[in-house]
Every structure is written in C-alpha cells, then in structure tokens.
Amino acid sequence: MTTTQQPSTKEDILQHLLKHGRATAQDLAEILAISPQAIRRHLKDLEAEGSIAHKAVQVGMGRPQHMYELTHKGRDRFPNRYDDFAVSLLDTLAETVGEDQVTTILRKQWERKAVEYRSRLGDRPLGERVAALVELRKAEGYMAEWHAIEPNNGDKVQRYILTEHNCAISNVAESFPSVCGHELEMFAAILPDCTVERTYWMIDGEHRCGYLITPRSRG
C-alpha cells in the first residue's frame, strides 16, 4: 500500500504547485489531508530529485517559511507533446528560409487550428464554447481549466477566464516566442464575438498562462 500511495501523493503535490505556483508544507498538508511530517518527507524526496525547490519567505512577524515551487524539471513531468525535434526543425527552417518565413509558417498553423476549433465549437452559447475549448486543449496536452467571473457593479456582462497551467509547446515558445502571440490571435479568432486578453504569461515568469474572455456588446 505504501509503495502505491507515495507516488500518488507526490503527483498531488506537483499538480497543486503547477496550478497554484507555490505553497508551504502546512498548506499542502491541509489541502491533501495528510500529516505535516508525511508532507515534509515527500517534499524532501521531490527536492532531492530536482522537481521542486524552496525559498525562504517572510510571513508576518514569525520566522521565514519555506515556500515550495516547481523547477523546470518538475514542469517537464507534465504532458508536453512537442520535443527537441520540433525546435530543431524550426531552427533548420529559420536557417534555410529565414525567421520571417518561419513566423509566417507558424501563423498559418495557428490559423488552420483556429478553423478546426471553430468548426468543433459551433454556435453554442459562449459558456459552452469556452468549456468545450478547454476540453480540446486538455486533449492536446494542456492542463487547462476555466471559470466564470460573476458580474458586479451593475455590469451584466458574463466574462470567463481560461487558464493553462502548463505549456504543451514550451520548448518551441522559448526559441520562437512569436507562437505565444499567435496563440492569443487564435483564441480571438475562435471566439470572434469576444475580446480576448492575456492576463498571465509564463514567458513573463508567471506559473501559468491566463486569458480573459469578454463578450462584445451587441449594441
């Protein structure tokens, strides 16, 4: 029983850090409903293998707390359908036809993907389309989720947040950051009746990419 439980708990820890960025041992113990001592054993193992790292953070007047977060190695444990071959291929293309041409090729790829997504989402209500889009992204290796933002201050517009906690094309994005701009354009093309804004960006050091989806006024 112990052998099967430990990897599962470690994966739960990694999943939580992937979604929330960082956490203390006490936070994780409460969320996963196991003892702080057991959590610290798992954290020690994960840190020893290089999947997580900790920083001392001052909270209030007490002693600094250890705040744990994923390392690059820890993020690499999550689905990533693109590998070094894709980056190598794009590098070769850049050397052969030039970076501008590669950018054009990548844009064409996203335009094709946008057409595919739109045909699969159809003309359903926006909330249903956002939910369906998240499922399509999950199938492609993204840990994606969404939630609705409750209207406030008399605003009757129902907005949505789409979050991706990992990047299935992270290796490509590091070498060709223009693909991130194409992704934003793609979401805007998929949801033509909405304004799509990037709220979080991994390239800027965030632990996730986030998009705010706001329906346009029909007036």
TrEMBL record:
InterPro entries linked to this entry: ArsR-like_HTH (IPR011991), SUF_FeS_clus_asmb_SufR_cyano (IPR014075), WH-like_DNA-bd_sf (IPR036388), WH_DNA-bd_sf (IPR036390)
NCBIfam families: SufR_cyano (TIGR02702)
Record protein name field: Iron-sulfur cluster biosynthesis transcriptional regulator SufR
Organism of this sequence: Oxynema aestuarii AP17
Gene expressing this chain: sufR
